[in-house]
Amino acid sequence: MRSISRWMRRILAKVIEFCMKHAESLDPEELDAWDDDFFKMDNSTLFDIIKAANYLDIKSLLDLTCKTVANMIKGKSPEEIRRIFNIKNDFTPEEEQEVRMENQCALEHE
Amino acid sequence: MMEEEMKQFASLCLSSKSTSAEVVISNYDLLSEILSYVPVKRLICFKSVSKQWLSLISSARFAMLHYRQCRCTSRTSAVFLESEVLLNKMDKHMVLINLNGESDQSHKNPFRYTSFSHDTFDPNKVLMLQSCHGLLLCRTGIVVTHVPRPLFHYYVYNPTTNQLATIPINWSNRVTIHASVLVFDPSKSPYYKIVFCIHSPHMCPHSRRFVIYYSQTKTWKTSALGSFIPPVYLAMFNFAYFKGSIYWITTSKVDKLVLSYNVDEDTLTTLPRPPEKVSSFIRRSFYFGESAGHLHIAEVFACAASSLDVYQLNPDHTGWFLKFKVDLYQLSKDLPQMRSNMYTYVDEYAFSILSLVRSREDFDEDSVLVLEVPGKVIVYNLVDQSWKEVHNFRRADNPRHWRWEINSAIDYNESLACVNTASFWV
Asked: What pTM was estimated for this model as a whole?
């Protein structure tokens, strides 16, 4: 229980920091710059904040964290994505080939 | 406590030593949220990550979520243009003109004629008729020399996902189709309709009827309006779809109006057309289309003044106001091929409007006209009057000779929209 409450304290502190900054400042440019800095965090914290923002229903924070993750993953290949998130490839080699041909993936990125 | 619920959910599919990342990614709603910010092209590739990702990215529900997130930033990035294959003039292949220029290789032509292999005539002759928010309406394309006239197949095709739906036509080949309009608004519904304006043999020669196909139920309905006689000089194949209504513009010098058919309400109304520069001259070509929530008309008249006027439909849909003016004289100084062309009079400019792409934001800094002049396609900025070449027909291997044409280009928008939305809530 102690490790969970330490996690909670750390994440909630970040969430509160975000909410307070966005409540007190109205300048979109200043907020953008602050957000860029705020999101320079390790992946574990980033995903913890997604969970917290989702649970606490803080839409603006959830949108921004999801966007940050999207930017992180959009340049990756499917194989890299599976590795990072420990996703099991449940396609057979034939099925995977069919999906890639169907979607012209072979022409891009790899 | 959320972490416990998350851990319980995740442990169904992952080991108990899941990281926060794994837990979030295994949550369908959170994964949807994250992926809704990823560009369409990358999402198509991500379909091969796992079966869950394939199912999510292919779902109609996710397509709508993604459209909502990205509509603020995405806009038409390319147009399809008919290419003349000199060997066989009957083959109307469409090439993709990338509006960011030829050096941007991110757009390979996504239209695959092989997907139409079951077409009863020739898949390579399939015609692209119209695009609507990423979906294309296509049709069997043949030279009509047969009597009785053969029955066409109509298709709805998403070139981004390579999904195809064949529309079941249930009328005889003696019915004449004067217009076919794909009606699709992903901000409102994942389903589309196709409105056909037809003439059946038993009707009097000038009257028409609307018949509508609903993709949600895969059924047909005849409009309660019944037969109507459209205004004279209304070319029904020149239309624009905008916010629930289909608009047609007359070329008559007497009835200066625009006909509007509201698809949901099944009503037909008229509104005045934009003012013509010089009403006694013939219309050479025009552009009529929607972009970023605005409807535009730009008409080119023979022997017109040296500027092109672009009108926009006003907010209450009762008339038009002048939105942009293009200084053709200035443009022709940089592009001398616009002058003295075999198809133009001595003081006319040779150009066609392929598309108009407005900025998504309120300020119009990136609003552009896509123009074809003899030999090339350019993108002209409507605000600062700068222009850049995005395609050169002489360098490319798709020759094309400019002449007066209407609707020769079709917008391409990347989209995840489903063409067969049987299971929307999955």
From this structure: 0.88
